[in-house]
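User: Structure tokens for this complex, please. No commentary.
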Amino acid sequence: MATDSVKLLIVRASPYAMRAILEAKGLKYELIEENLSAKSQLLLESNPVYKKIPVLLHGGKAIPESLFIVLYVDEAWPERAAFFPKDPYARAMTHFWGDFIDKKIFQLAVSTMKTKKGDPKKEAGVSELYENFLTLESGFTQLDAKPFFNGAGIGYADICLAPLAAWLRVFVELAGIRVPTAEEAPKLHKFLSAIREHPGSKVAFPDPDELLSYVILHLKKTMAA
Amino acid sequence: MATDSVKLLIVRASPYAMRAILEAKGLKYELIEENLSAKSQLLLESNPVYKKIPVLLHGGKAIPESLFIVLYVDEAWPERAAFFPKDPYARAMTHFWGDFIDKKIFQLAVSTMKTKKGDPKKEAGVSELYENFLTLESGFTQLDAKPFFNGAGIGYADICLAPLAAWLRVFVELAGIRVPTAEEAPKLHKFLSAIREHPGSKVAFPDPDELLSYVILHLKKTMAA
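Assistant:
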């Protein structure tokens, strides 16, 4: 399938991992920067339901929502590195852990970050996240990660977790999250190191200082100082 | 693949649609009723992360979470009716609409149902749901539903939406939701009629009166009278 017509509507700093997906498949693509305070006609028409980035444009078709973009990219270029194992059970559990990462790591970290200091929900969120990182360690074991969930190359659950390598500093600084040590969660730490060294991530991830400034700027209205 | 070892951990009234999935594949299965106030060791061991029903047990493997059970059942018995189209774009959009149904129809309807009368969030939820039903109509069009998203047989997005046929009365009575008329949303109404006539649904769906009583009993602590 021709790869020269792949375009990705994004905003700066987010969702940077999307680029890593395309890099992982070795695709050529064009990034189109959106301004969320003045959304383009292209964005509004290509994602009429949510009107949000990211949207992948390919061969006249528009695929919204990051996780569905991953599924599409995986299946539209099946001759390239697969994002899922072949066994139905391993596939289902890859979805299971990807969903856990989405809800129980990222959504919880973001909502904890947005909770004001002093609100008991903030400390509860920090505690739950710590436990969830330990639970995630059992996911690495279940899917026999080495070091990625998908083996030596990144796959679906890895793509779900990859942005943590860039966002961890933001979550620590702005949400006060506590991450298990390398002794408590060795597989998580190996994963994060490997993601930081992955060629796709190197292209895709923003500079941590820049990301922190960006998030502070965008959250300052809703966050406690 | 042998089908005689398929078991499903459930509770009565929910998640009834799970049975329809197994019926749609023509599988034999055993239902195991769980008591959520005294969960079995089997449930705790087979879903250690969430400790929730449903869990599918097959050949010594445990698959938790309804949507991942659907994916597993579809792929473990590929020789039987497929739950997804073959085209990568149609597959991605089937996921997209399944997710929309999960979040923007069911989760919103349940949270609106639990919101107390007089809370402005209740009326806002009712209005948003009405709009979401109209948006869903565009999903039926996009995936060329006839009458199901998956064509003549039920598939992934259909399974996501199917429980509405049983729950609609509960949502109308307890959440006060408004559903577009058959003129405003003809495809939704055709879908609901077809689901009610589907052999799998007929086996799987609880009696509407029984379901209403069940929900009232379980929500009475958190709901306004």
